[in-house]
Amino acid sequence: MNLYDAYDPFARVYNQHWGFFATKAYPILEHLVLEKLSPGCAVLDLCCGTGQLAAELSRRGYRTTGLDGSEGMIEIARKNAPDVDFVVQDARNIALTRKFAAALSTFDSLNHVMSLDELEQVFRSVFSVLDGGGYFVFDLNMEEGFRSRWCGSFELVEEDHVCVVRSSHDANEKTGRMDVTLFELDGSRWVRTDIPLIQRWYEEVEIKERLRKAGFEELQSFDGNEPIVEGSVHEGRMFFVGRKRDARQARSERHPDVLKELVTVPDSFFDPLPEEDLKSWEGE
Ligand SMILES: C[S@@+](CC[C@H](N)C(=O)[O-])C[C@H]1O[C@@H](n2cnc3c(N)ncnc32)[C@H](O)[C@@H]1O
Fold first, then answer.
1. Whole-structure pTM value
2. Which residue, of 37, 106, 212, 224, has the greatest Cβ tally within 10 A?
3. Distance (Å, rounded) from C-alpha 58 to C-alpha 134?
4. Is residue 3 part of a domain?
């Protein structure tokens, strides 16, 4: 599978004008997941972009890994968050051996995944790198967000670059398109780059269904139109939380105390099973 590298030519300008979002979302992430974690645990910033969230997580003491498909975004992320370990990988096919207490993905990154099957693939990929009991939290632009915000155009005019953004959406295809045209000053000449960024929207029920199929439990969704924490409004966006069940908890629920009284089992019987055994146990 190819890397998602569409942001490569956009990285410098994204960092300057859009990189703020993740830190704006931090209080929500803190409220939904981070405050449930142990201090200093390992956290994955999935589709980390230019690394502002990763920098904040690292400042707060989390052992942070940032993953993004765009080499250009990661190059800037490494400067923004020098203490963070960054990898260039695709979210649909994460190849990390370390495990995380939580994975976070912000600013509609996962709307760039263009089919439900691929979205489920991302969910499965994240599931595979979470510790038992680990959390996954992400936001997505919903249909309402595309209808209200993905239309019209605006421009940003700076000394050394001009960025024109034209947005549209297609309700039949459930897609939004942002055509970014950049003019960047290179010495004494202006260089033009055109960057099409495409997103897809999904229904809340189908997102939850795919999370469930990927193995997540304790699913929750939060409408950004309502303040999730005081003062936070994210029009047309939802936040989703899922949790990977802890193997020990799963087995103790499957073996209620009455069973323990009928049969004598060694204590090791209740130790966590390897992941593969757990899957076959759960009939996956
Ligand atoms: C809108 S930016 C958000 C960046 C960052 N999370 C933030 O809050 O500023 C979307 C990011 O998702 C990344 N991305 C999209 N699809 C991806 C995929 N399949 N695998 C890895 N990265 C992906 C892009 O490269 C880009 O950096």
1. 0.89
2. 106
3. 18
4. no
**Window from 18-27, 67-76, 93-102, 111-120 with minimum mean pLDDT:** 18-27
With cut-offs at 50, 70 and 90, classify the pLDDT of residue 263: low
DSSP of 250-264: HHHHHS-HHHHHHS-
Query: Does the C-beta of 21 come closer than 6 Å to ligand 1?
Result: yes
Pairwise CA distance, residues 236 & 23, whole Å: 19
Q: Beta strand 100-105 with 130-141: parallel, antiparallel or unpaired? A: parallel
Residue 284 has pLDDT above 60, yes or no: no
Q: What is the pLDDT of residues 125-172, one digit of tens each?
A: 999 999 999 999 999 999 999 999 999 999 999 999 999 999 999 999
182 Cα–ligand 1 center, Å = 19
| Interatomic CA distance for residues 112 and 119, integer angstroms | 9
The DSSP annotation for 41-58 comes to -EEEEET-TTSHHHHHHH
Which residues constitute the domain of residue 169? 146-198
Is there a single domain that holds both residue 193 and residue 206?
Answer: no
Mutual orientation of helices 204-213 and 116-128 as an angle, nearest 10°? 40
Residue 250 above 90 pLDDT? no
How large is the average pLDDT for residues 62-68? 98
As for how many domains the chain has, the answer is 3
Atom of ligand 1 at shortest distance to CA of 6? Answer: 25
Ligand 1 centre and the CA of 63: distance in Å?
20
Confidence band (pLDDT; 50, 70, 90) for 277? low
Strand ranges (DSSP E) for 58-123? Answer: 63-68, 85-88, 100-105
Contact in structure between 151 and 176 (CB atoms under 8 Å): no
**In this structure, are 151 and 272 located in the same domain?**
no
Ligand 1 centroid from CA 77, angstroms: 12
